[in-house]
Design a protein that fits this description.
The chain is an alpha+beta fold and about 475 residues long. It has 3 domains: about 160 residues, OB fold (Dihydrolipoamide Acetyltransferase, E2P); about 110 residues, OB fold (Dihydrolipoamide Acetyltransferase, E2P) (Beta Barrel); about 120 residues, Beta Barrel (OB fold (Dihydrolipoamide Acetyltransferase, E2P)). It is about 15% helix and about 35% strand. The chain has 9 helices and 26 strands. A 5-stranded mixed barrel has the order 3-4-5-8-7. Strands 12-13-14-16-15 form a 5-stranded mixed β-barrel. Helix 4 packs parallel to helix 5.
Length: about 475
């Protein structure tokens, strides 16, 4: 009897459960997340992982579209969103070169004032283009358009990787990898794809979009910049703490000279670094000639030498990675001793487009400089100088007693001064100006200034060759 009652009760429960399911009383089917915005499903409120797409290939290069297009090859890499290309397209660029400013993107600076993620963005662009089998530039509409400088063209960059038949859009790829922020992206030809690429980078928290520190950036209190920016705007940084990298080329007394190459202008830029007497032995070791170093110090005007220099260097032995420390990057490098003619040294002008201001008030300014003013403290070489006369430092109380200034004339008649330190021959005898007078020489030295005029300063007898 008890078994009958139990079976009856069980049957009743099954009937009730079945009825509830038929009436919709059971569990609802899972949400399909078809209404998602900013990673949140609007229907159920759950966080939804964004679908990962390769947006750089979602944009398609349509050769039949009315936009302008041209095949190009790289001349120089400037930074993450600026590259100079060789082109044979009539009416495009100057002298067969087009300066490209990438559309829809703004990468952090890796030249001038260095910004977080700037070096990584620059390296990314270079890595993609240097191995490409084909590169095509495209305008945003039916015209080749320039930016506010009037010198750079606003372009889409398409490249074909090795072992691929598909062109990738580098502008979109920078956004997709979180290495650029939007620059009027939505209003451009591939705007919807660009904004989707940005959203994906944000969802994946990539690089800039991660809001995390850049592991390749120094977060000290110094202004990170390159030597071109420092030399071109030197008075602007007077009294400020700066940081830059370059190769130690010359060590003399308590100073060293550091230079670095700028591909865009095909020039070296340099700075004198005063080490003083307080720098410890480990710090001096870092400043060995041939080492590539990161220098951190204060910009100061040296009135006696009539030039700017870097002072207040430090090296904390117990904190080798301190962002205020000297840092050794590599060794085995050599001074450039870039060949220059006497006429270029005295008369050549260099025009630079520079960024000035802070934050949202940054503007581009074009300035023209004397070549030697920009090349200060860099190593140069010069041939074919005839020594006409000389002067000698005769102050017995000066360590420079016996140093000379050789007044020379180049083959084209240009006059130039060569300043030497005190020179001795192999036997230790003092070398005088008579040794060089009337002879034709080649020199290797550093660009220097004295009494408002530029000269070449030579630090060794081996750096003067008599023809």
């Amino acid at each position: 009897m008890k078994n009958v009652r139990f079976l009856s009760l069980l049957l009743l429960i099954c009937i009730i459960v079945t009825s509830l399911a038929a009436c919709g009383g059971g569990e609802e089917p899972p949400c399909e997340h078809k209404n998602v915005a900013l990673g949140i499903c609007k229907d159920c409120g759950e966080k939804v992982k964004a679908e990962e797409k390769d947006w750089a290939t979602e944009a398609k290069l349509d050769m039949s579209a009315p936009t302008k297009k041209a095949n190009v090859s790289v001349k120089i890499y400037v930074d993450g969103d600026t590259v100079h290309f060789y082109t044979s397209e009539p009416g495009l660029g100057t002298g067969g070169v087009v300066k490209a400013r990438f559309l829809a993107v703004d990468t952090p600076e890796s030249t001038g004032k260095i910004e977080e993620w700037g070096k990584k963005a620059s390296a990314f662009t270079k890595s993609k283009l240097e191995t490409a089998t084909s590169i095509i530039i495209e305008s945003n509409d039916e015209n080749w358009n320039v930016d506010s400088t009037g010198d750079r063209y606003l372009l889409w960059i398409w490249y074909k990787p090795q072992d691929s038949d598909t062109y990738r859009n580098l502008n979109i790829e920078l956004l997709q990898n979180g290495l650029a922020i939007a620059s009027n992206t939505a209003a451009t030809r591939y705007g919807s794809i660009g904004t989707s690429a940005i959203a994906q980078a944000k969802a994946q928290k990539l690089n800039i979009q991660s809001k995390q520190p850049d592991p390749d950036f120094y977060y000290g209190d110094a202004i990170e910049l390159d030597l071109k920016e420092l030399r071109a705007n030197i008075a602007q940084y007077d009294g400020k703490k700066v940081a830059f990298t370059g190769v130690v080329t010359i060590s003399n007394n308590n100073s060293v000279y550091v230079e670095s190459y700028d591909e865009e202008t095909d020039m070296y830029y340099g700075m004198a670094v005063y080490c003083g007497f307080n720098l410890n032995g480990e710090g001096w070791e870092i400043l060995t000639v041939g080492n590539e170093v990161r220098v951190v110090g204060k910009v100061s005007y040296y009135s006696t030498g009539q030039t700017y220099q870097i002072i207040d260097l430090q090296y904390k032995i117990m904190k080798p990675n301190d962002p205020s420390n000297l840092q050794k990057i590599s060794d085995g490098n050599e001074a450039a001793y870039m060949p220059v003619t006497a006429n270029d040294f005295q008369n050549k002008k260099i025009t630079l487009t520079l960024l000035q201001g802070e934050g949202d008030n940054v503007t581009e300014v074009t300035k023209t400089f004397d070549f030697a003013a920009l090349a200060m403290n860099t190593t140069v070489s010069m041939d074919g100088l005839t020594v006409n006369r000389y002067t000698t430092t005769t102050n017995e109380e000066s360590a420079n007693e016996g140093a000379m200034t050789l007044y020379c004339t180049a083959s084209d008649g240009t006059e130039i001064a060569v300043r030497t330190v005190v020179l001795h021959d192999e036997s230790g005898n003092l070398i005088t100006g008579e040794y060089f007078k009337g002879k034709t020489i080649s020199v290797k030295g550093m660009v220097d200034a004295f009494s408002g005029s530029y000269q070449i300063k030579v630090f060794s007898l081996n750096d003067i060759t008599i023809k």
